[in-house]
């Protein structure tokens, strides 16, 4: 089971949310993510943040439903998203899904994506999902189901990764060392029912994306 954290970034289409068939047990709204929860017809377990970007009428609606609220000052050392992740971990969740984590603010988007790496080192698996992308980490190996019109990219987050094998991909690789900053593994495609990425060393972010 997973915790779902809804941030104040881009909206997620309800159809995509349903199709992903996410196994959600606990829902956290990080500030303005509360309005996205309303659009997805989700009732959060808790609202967390400094409340600087939340619609006050929507907030009142959920507070009237006795939804728990943890309010932080606007001047703080962590983003609302990271505070929400910390809360999910305190609740015992090791699988966390972020939506509303990407958007027009590139600084927030990159910071949220990099949380995947930070928390993986603490034993927490995080996925970032929006209308065009699913981002997660790969260490050792990962199997990906083929989705029509989607591309798969691997971006090294260690000094290098050793791609032992890409199985089921249009552009296969075997025993290739890919350095951090390389674009060699960007925009590949799965041509079988599924694709398998096998790494001998290092870690990378896997982007499953469509235009």
Detail the topology: elements first, then pairings:
Elements (H helix, E strand, L loop, with lengths): L1 E5 L7 H6 L4 E7 L2 H7 L6 E4 L6 H8 L4 E4 L8 H11 L4 E5 L6 H15 L4 E5 L3 E13 L5 E6 L3 E8 L6 E6 L14 E16 L2
Parallel strand pairs: 1-2, 1-5, 2-3, 3-4, 5-6
Antiparallel strand pairs: 6-7, 7-11, 8-11, 9-10, 9-11
Summary of the model, kept short:
Helix content is 22%, strand content 37%. It has 211 residues and is α/β, with parallel strands linked by helices. It has two domains: 2-131, Rossmann fold (3-Layer(aba) Sandwich); 137-209, Thiamin pyrophosphokinase, thiamin-binding domain (Jelly Rolls, Sandwich), CATH 2.60.120.320.
Principal-axis shape equals elongated
Task: Provide the structure class.
Answer: alpha/beta
Give a count of the beta strands, DSSP E runs of length 2 or more: 11
**In the CATH hierarchy, what is the class of the largest domain?**
Alpha Beta
Helix content: 10-25%
Distance N to C terminus: 30 Å
CATH topology of the largest domain: Rossmann fold
What is the H/E string? EHEHEHEHEHEEEEEE
How would you describe the overall organization of this protein?
With 211 residues, the chain is of the alpha/beta class. The chain folds into two domains: 2-131, Thiamin pyrophosphokinase, catalytic domain (Rossmann fold, 3-Layer(aba) Sandwich); 137-209, Sandwich (Jelly Rolls), CATH 2.60.120. Helix content is 22%, strand content 37%. The protein is built from five helices and eleven strands. Strands 1, 2, 3, 4, 5, 6, 7, 8, 9, 10 and 11 form an eleven-stranded mixed β-sheet that branches. The longest helix is centred in the middle third of the chain and has 15 residues, at 106-120. The radius of gyration is 18 Å and the shape is elongated. The model has no long low-confidence stretch (mean pLDDT 94).
């Amino acid at each position: 089971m997973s915790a779902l954290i809804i941030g104040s970034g881009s909206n997620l289409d309800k159809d995509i949310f349903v199709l992903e068939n996410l196994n959600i047990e606990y829902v956290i709204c990080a500030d303005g993510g509360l309005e996205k929860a309303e659009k997805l017809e989700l009732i959060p377990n808790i609202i967390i943040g400094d409340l600087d970007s939340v619609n006050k009428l929507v907030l009142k609606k959920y507070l009237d439903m006795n939804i728990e609220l943890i309010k932080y000052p606007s001047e703080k050392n962590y983003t609302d998203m990271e505070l929400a992740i910390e809360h999910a971990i305190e609740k015992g969740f090791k699988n966390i899904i972020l939506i509303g984590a990407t958007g027009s603010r590139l600084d927030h988007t990159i910071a949220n994506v990099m949380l995947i790496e930070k928390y993986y080192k603490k034993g927490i698996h995080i996925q970032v999902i929006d209308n065009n992308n699913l981002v997660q980490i790969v260490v050792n190996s990962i199997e990906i189901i083929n989705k029509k019109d989607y591309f798969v990219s691997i971006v090294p987050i260690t000094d290098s990764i050793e791609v032992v094998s890409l199985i089921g991909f249009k552009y296969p690789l075997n025993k290739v060392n890919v350095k951090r900053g390389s674009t060699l593994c960007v925009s590949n495609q799965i041509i079988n029912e599924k694709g398998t990425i096998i790494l001998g060393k290092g870690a990378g972010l896997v982007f499953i994306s469509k235009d």
